[in-house]
UniProtKB/TrEMBL annotation, chain A:
SUPFAM superfamilies: beta-lactamase/transpeptidase-like. This is Penicillin-binding protein. GO terms for molecular function: penicillin binding; peptidoglycan L,D-transpeptidase activity. Gene3D superfamilies: DD-peptidase/beta-lactamase superfamily, Penicillin-binding protein 2a (Domain 2). The lineage of its organism: Bacteria, Bacillati, Actinomycetota, Actinomycetes, Kitasatosporales. Transmembrane segments: none annotated. Pfam families: PBP_dimer_2, Transpeptidase. One of its GO terms (biological process) is cell wall organization. One of its GO terms (cellular component) is plasma membrane. Residues 161-487 form the Penicillin-binding protein transpeptidase domain.
Automatic annotation (TrEMBL), chain B:
Keywords: Cell cycle, Cell division, Cell shape, Membrane, Transmembrane, Transmembrane helix. It comes from Streptomyces actuosus. One of its GO terms (biological process) is cell division. InterPro entries: FtsW/RodA. It is a multi-pass membrane protein. GO terms for molecular function: lipid-linked peptidoglycan transporter activity. GO terms for cellular component: cell division site; plasma membrane. The chain crosses the membrane at residues 28-49, 55-74, 86-104, 124-141, 150-167, 179-208, 229-247, 253-269, 274-292, 357-378, 399-426, 432-451. This is Cell division protein FtsW. Its main location: membrane. It is found in: Membrane.
């Protein structure tokens, strides 16, 4: 009987071994994914078990943490609070006991809760010294004045829209505003009031969709602001050597292979205009023909160098802007003036202005400058990164002078700032069936200060439902906001 | 039957006293650790939850120490040559179980749904009852072979216990499985006791029939096929397992009994063909029943996709439970070293967090390291049981020891595997760790029987008796 007994012993050993293997798989291999699963309540409990770290702008936190009444079964000790929540929501996102977290609150959750591995040493030290675990801080690149100017500008207009401001030399995001916005503190808890407030903000119950981050997640037809990209393509591909050579632009101009005439806005001097002149008065015919002459491949290549057709991670994800990849010749012409299927996020158009201002180099946009532990030691620092070079330094300077003409004596005069060189481009994009809805007013610009450096590039988009259709133009609605944002950045530098 | 112990009898019959060392002092030393470790764990939980050493620490330490001490003294007196590891290992598991049950008692969430709060004192009482039964087994069961006399009574008793939950008014349906009965406010799981009684029946029956089962067979395709009439008993046990599965809807109990029988049958006959038959029959039975029994089906679905089950449960659809997923999260959140006792959130499992799912709390708070240690302790208990079977000198003792240890191993596998998502969940509990009177009391009795068999096996100057009738002749033996 002993032989089968020994075999049974081995069999029992195998049962235990199977359990050991399973446990290793569960608690070692799958441990992280189970522990950080969003449905795992522990994630929420950890998030609110200690005072959450802050999101910092210009040295001041825009977030806070308040003790909740830990009564009954409420296992969450702290609740997130926000200062000027609506203004900063596109940056911070929300952290709600009941509804989870998004954007920076979610992406940097490890640092904010203090659970990140990079805080391990600190935490161990705190444990030994008996201090309560504390979350670290996320220090953003944002500029409080610029953000205020951007948000208040949109709010004063009362129209849906967004503003993005970048520092061209680094890619730092200086302003990121969206309107209408929401205050994340109203649903930070898990009471019935919080649930009610959350419900009211959902698109289903609120057609304005205040929780949409228009600066990063909404794509708009860029209209005439896209002509900057087309001009860059013309220069880079040597279609025209400089800004002041007359272009080969008949007027009227029929879209290739069709009988449709491409129209300009009003009776403007576009026949064989130089690129500088064409950009100043925003000639559709000139840039449409440039796009058509270059062909879709060159246009796509240039647009993608500026960041089109790719998501950006700032680290908050932005939607990919679209420059269509399948189009015929007339569609290429229309796409080159920001129509047809071309669509861009406000961040994308700010990147276009920023690349031109930075002598052709496009820096990767980012909003987290550094991560700090609770005692303000730097845990990680973001280094500026070059994303691409859409145009040579020489061509960038030509394009700068063209954009500066637009502000000096073209459609963008309302963005002028005393003592500062401003380059920009207006845009008015139609949308809706047969253009029945109010157009989007665009303005992209950059400012150059006395020492020749460019501290800021801005993109503003506004959808104005209240204004008269005729009134809407990038120069009239969007440029003044861009101006205020640029001024705020320049004044903050002084 | 060869004996693995170095019996001194064939050297000389006059110095029998220097035989196998009794190892009682080893047992005592190990018991000190088995009591000290849970006491430290208890203090640890108190410090983690309330920032103070729990007020009941002394009482708990003394209580556990006293129970273990009395157990040890009884073993020293009545089973001096018993295996020295079984008692300390069982004490350690029981003590740790008590600590974690007390830890879950502190959870407001579990208190609010009446799943915990006063479980630990009750468990301590059950432990005392369990050790009392353990002592009674050692005192009154002088020789395990006496049990052989009760072979057929055991069969009737086991069937009676197994069918009890089906008696209307007595049986309870808890979360779908009908394996409990309710007597005077106590929930009893008769299956836990049936496990031991059935092992006695199988051992007695197989000891008598093993030659017939092993030798009277035809060879077919490399397998020894038993005769039709010898197939009878295995078919009956199989049918009973299926009935348990159908009427009590508990896959675990059914698997446990059938598995135990197949193991004992294999050991008795040394025929691999029985294993093949057993596997085929249990597979056929399980698949067959699972295809029409909705409760089993749901358990299988929950096992295949616990996340979906969780979502369904969260949507408030009745008949679904988030426990399986919650247990997996508990294990995952524990990681390698765990959160530390008292610092996890395994109370999120809610129902049965301190019984069926208690292993998840160990997983979360003691981590991979803790679970591995606990599984190895279970493994050790099983291997000590198997060793006892190897050392036993009589076939009945061998069969009973292997049956009990095999059932113990299967139970650990089925419960731990279920909680860890390796196999579908069943309604059984981890021996010694989990909250539940039946389980603790029955398993202490099981360890008592194993200790009795091991004492007989390791005792020098073996009694030549191979059947109880021989005891009569022993009296007149000189020496």
């Amino acid at each position: 009987m002993n032989k089968p007994l020994r075999r049974i012993a081995i069999f029992c050993g195998l049962l235990v071994l199977t359990l050991l293997l399973r446990d290793n798989w569960l608690q070692y291999v799958k441990s992280d994914s189970l522990a950080t699963d969003d449905n795992n309540r522990r994630v929420t409990i950890a998030r609110y078990s200690t005072p959450r770290g802050d999101i910092v702008v210009d040295g001041d936190p825009v977030t806070g943490s308040a003790k909740t009444s830990k009564s009954g079964l409420n296992d969450l000790e702290f609740k997130r609070t926000y200062k000027d929540g609506a203004m900063w929501a596109p940056v911070t996102g929300y952290a709600s006991q009941a509804f989870g977290a998004n954007q920076l609150e979610n992406l940097e959750d490890g640092i904010l809760t203090g659970n990140d591995d990079r805080l391990f040493f600190r935490n161990t030290l705190d444990m030994v010294t008996g201090k309560q675990k504390q979350g670290g801080n996320v220090v953003t690149t944002l500029n409080a004045d610029a953000q205020k100017a951007a948000y208040n500008g949109l709010k004063a207009r009362g129209a849906k829209g967004a503003v993005v401001a970048l520092e061209p030399s680094t890619g730092k995001i200086l302003a990121l505003a969206s309107y209408p916005s929401y205050d994340p503190s109203v649903f930070a808890g898990n009471s019935n009031d919080d649930a009610e407030a959350w419900k009211k903000l959902q698109k289903k119950y609120n057609p304005d969709d205040p929780m949409l981050n228009r600066a990063l997640r909404e794509t708009y037809p860029p209209g005439s602001t896209f002509k900057v990209v087309t001009a860059a393509a013309a220069l880079e591909n040597n279609l025209y050597p400089d800004a002041d050579t007359a272009t080969d632009s008949p007027l009227p101009w029929t879209l290739p292979t069709t009988t449709t005439e491409l129209k300009n806005e009003g009776n403007i001097p576009c026949k064989n205009a130089t690129m500088r002149e064409a950009l100043r008065v925003s000639c559709n015919t000139v840039f449409g023909k440039i796009g058509s002459d270059l062909g879709k491949d060159k246009m796509i290549a240039e647009a993608e160098k500026f960041g089109f057709n790719a998501e950006q991670f700032t680290p908050v994800r932005s939607s990919a802007s679209v420059f269509p990849e399948k189009m015929d010749r007339p569609q290429t012409a229309l796409s080159s003036i920001g129509q047809f299927e071309t669509a861009a996020t406000p961040l994308q158009m700010a990147m276009v202005a920023s690349a031109v201002a930075n002598d052709g180099k496009l820096m990767k946009p980012y909003m987290v400058d550094k991560l700090q532990s609770s005692n303000l030691d730097t845990v990680a620092q973001t280094e500026p990164q070059e994303l691409s070079q859409p145009l040579s330094s020489k061509n960038a300077q030509i394009l700068q002078s063209m954009m500066e003409t637009v502000v000096k004596e073209g459609t963008g005069t309302r963005a002028q700032i005393d003592g500062v060189t401003v380059g920009g481009k207006t845009g008015t994009a139609q949308h809706g069936v047969d253009n029945s809805e109010n157009p989007y007013a665009w303005f992209i610009s950059y400012a150059k200060v006395a020492d020749g450096s460019s501290p800021v590039a801005v993109a503003v988009v506004i959808e104005d439902e209240n204004a008269n259709r005729g009134d809407i133009s990038g120069g009239g609605l969007a440029a003044p906001i861009a101006k205020k944002v640029m001024q705020a950045v320049i004044n903050a530098k002084k | 039957m060869s004996s693995t112990t170095n019996s001194p009898t064939h050297h000389t019959s006059t110095i029998g006293s220097i035989g196998t060392p009794s190892r009682r002092n080893t047992e005592l030393a190990l018991l000190v650790f088995a009591v000290a470790i849970p006491v430290f764990a208890y203090a640890n939980v108190g410090l983690a939850i309330n920032d103070e050493v729990p007020s009941g620490l002394l009482a708990y330490g003394l209580g556990l120490g006293l129970l273990a001490g009395v157990g040890h003294l009884v073993v020293r007196k009545f089973a001096p040559y018993a295996d020295p590891l079984l008692l300390p290992l069982a004490t350690l598991l029981n003590g740790l179980g008590l600590v974690v049950i007390w830890r879950l008692d502190q959870s407001k969430l579990l208190q609010s749904i009446k799943q915990a709060g006063t479980a630990a004192p009750r468990q301590l009482m059950y432990t005392a009852m369990g050790i009392a039964l353990f002592i009674a087994v050692l005192i009154f069961l002088k020789d395990h072979r006496v049990l052989q006399r009760y072979t057929y009574i055991s069969m009737v008793g086991a069937l009676f216990l197994l069918l009890l939950p089906l008696v209307p008014g007595l049986g309870q349906n808890i979360y779908g499985a009908k394996i409990w009965i309710s007597v005077a406010g106590f929930s009893i799981q008769p299956g836990e006791f049936a496990k031991i009684v059935l092992a006695i029946f199988f051992a007695g029956y197989l000891m008598v029939k093993r030659d017939a089962l092993a030798l009277a067979s035809r060879r077919f395709m490399g397998l020894y096929l038993p005769r039709g009439r010898d197939l009878g008993p295995i078919l009956v046990v199989w049918a009973i397992s299926i009935l348990i599965l159908v009427f009590e809807t508990d896959l675990g109990t059914s698997l446990l009994f059938f598995g135990m029988f197949v193991i004992m049958l294999y050991v008795a006959t040394e025929r691999t063909s029985w294993i093949v038959f057993g596997l085929l029959m249990s597979a056929a039975g399980a698949v067959g029943v699972a295809s029409f029994e909705p409760h089993i089906q749901q358990r299988v679905d929950a096992w295949l996709d616990p996340m979906k089950e969780y979502t369904l449960s969260r949507q408030g659809i009745p008949g679904h439970s988030e426990q399986a997923m919650q247990a997996l999260w508990a294990f995952g959140s524990g990681g390698t070293l765990g959160t530390g006792l008292g610092q996890g959130h395994s109370d999120l499992i809610r129902f049965a967090a301190n019984s069926d799912f208690i292993l998840a709390t160990f997983g979360e708070e003691l981590g991979l390291a803790g679970i591995m240690a606990i599984l190895l302790i279970y493994g050790l208990i099983v291997e000590r049981g198997v060793r006892t079977a190897l050392a036993a000198r009589d076939p009945f003792g061998k069969l009973l020891a292997i049956g009990l240890s095999g059932a113990f191993a299967l139970q650990v596998f089925v419960v731990a595997g279920g909680v860890m998502g390796l196999i579908p969940l069943t309604g059984m509990t981890m021996p010694f760790l989990a909250y539940g009177g039946s389980s603790v009391i029955a398993n202490w009795a099981l360890v008592g029987i194993l200790i009795r068999i091991s004492d007989t096996a390791r005792r020098p100057a073996p009694a030549p008796a191979t059947n109880p009738d021989a005891e009569m002749t022993q009296v007149v033996r000189p020496s």
